[in-house]
Design brief:
CATH class of the largest domain: Alpha Beta
Number of domains: 2
Oligomer: single chain
CATH topology of the largest domain: Rossmann fold
Largest sheet: 5 strands, parallel
Number of helices: 10
Strand content: 5-15%
Order of helices and strands: EHEHEHEHEHHHHHH
Number of strands: 5
């Protein structure tokens, strides 16, 4: 399998260099470009078609959330992981609604960041533990609505997807192979009328499905 193409958008010089060294040194990743502004990142993404974008939220021009929305319009299959210091609910849910596949805090350990990129390419929605808990708390407060005829196993898998767990971990939790989890996810997406994990998470949170 060819290395995943990674694009970085980060306005902090120190963090840019940190990400450049960390991700540029991984043989599974190909660093396509490192940019300071959202406008630069959107233009570069359109040309380079990266697999994953590591996106800061607070940028000098357009925000990382708006940049995410624009990139997803151009490249719907590109995964975007928000990489930020912000832990507030508004930025978290605005990011997910804009199309982000994951939300990691900048204090995330290096090995967790590299794992998150692999997870998102496998259909996961990686989130820092505290952020995942915010999502859980949010949808627990919502009134229960239709479960879209999901069976108990599918609800369990969806619940763990919302928690930000990767497919490999979910497989162990529900005693299925990774292929078995993927087949269940395909059925979940069909029943929810969504096309990917991050859309399923957003719908589950919005409608209080799990």
């Amino acid at each position: 399998m060819p290395p995943f193409k990674i694009l970085i958008c980060e306005d902090s010089a120190d963090k840019r260099e940190y990400l450049r060294i960390l991700l540029g040194g991984c043989r599974d990743f190909e660093l396509s470009g490192v940019f300071v502004t959202g406008e630069e990142a959107v233009a570069a993404a359109a040309q380079l078609a990266p697999d994953v974008v590591i996106m800061d939220i607070e940028l000098p021009d357009i925000s990382g959330i708006e940049s995410t929305r624009l990139i997803k319009k151009i490249l719907p299959h590109t995964h975007i992981i928000m990489y930020t210091v912000y832990e507030d609910d508004e930025k978290l849910f605005d990011s997910l609604c804009a199309g982000a596949s994951g939300y990691l805090l900048k204090k995330t350990p290096p090995d967790q960041l590299t794992k998150a990129i692999s997870e998102v390419m496998e259909g996961g929605s990686p989130m820092s533990p505290g952020i995942a808990q915010k999502v859980v708390q949010y949808f627990h407060k919502l009134p229960k609505k239709s479960d879209h005829h999901l069976c108990e196993r599918e609800l369990n898998i969806l619940r763990q997807l919302v928690d930000g767990l990767p497919i490999k971990i979910i497989a162990g939790e529900v005693h299925l192979s990774e292929d078995g989890v993927k087949k269940n996810l395909a059925n979940i997406y069909k029943k929810l009328h969504v096309s990917c994990g991050k859309e399923a998470v957003a719908k589950a949170v919005r409608e209080g499905i799990v």
